[in-house]
Fold:
Amino acid sequence: MTSKKGKFIVFEGIDGSGKGTQIKKLKDYLDRSGIKTLLTCEHTRDLPVGKLIETTLNGGEKIDPLSLQICFTADRRDHYQKVIQPALERGEFVISDRYYGSTVAYTDDKMKQIMLDFNQNIVPGADLTIFLDVDPKMAMKRIGDGRSTKTIFERLETLTKSRNSYLWFCKKMKGDVIVIDGNKDINTIHLNVLKKLKNKKIL
Structure:
């Protein structure tokens, strides 16, 4: 099985939703199918604006929340132009852990629509975005079990608010975003991801 045209797939979800696990399982599936795949994530850690974001999230220089989200968008444009687009042009599948749905999810309610419109005018959309919808309390348990540090976003109140914002985003994006129950077991989620990708003719 080979791909003549690159496809761009995005996984979104609150912290602790299991995105990393599902991305790895999808890549393993694509590898077995003979499809060359690039895994990437946002924010970036090696591009200039991404480095600033990383420092901020880990308690460094403080930035106004809206300014921080604009930084995420600047990093995203750089990311798309330097990493995602070249891979797509090579005919590869690109799987990204987060894209502009995350900016909407972590933006103040009054600014959600503005930031969505802004991002849609700055970078192209994905071929399909998959939102793993998980209960925030379960997400907090996963974070506590599997991670030794927590960023400023990894708090129950923030996760609950972000989930609600993600659901708003999904409704706005309609068929461009697929919602999958992230509370189920890992293999069931993986099979549901594959089913949605095939229904959308991505695979």
User: Anything to note?
Assistant: The longest strand covers residues 7-12. The chain has one domain: 7-199. The domain at 7-199 is CATH 3.40.50.300 (Rossmann fold). Helices lie at 19-32, 48-57, 65-89, 100-105, 112-122, 136-146, 156-173, 186-199.
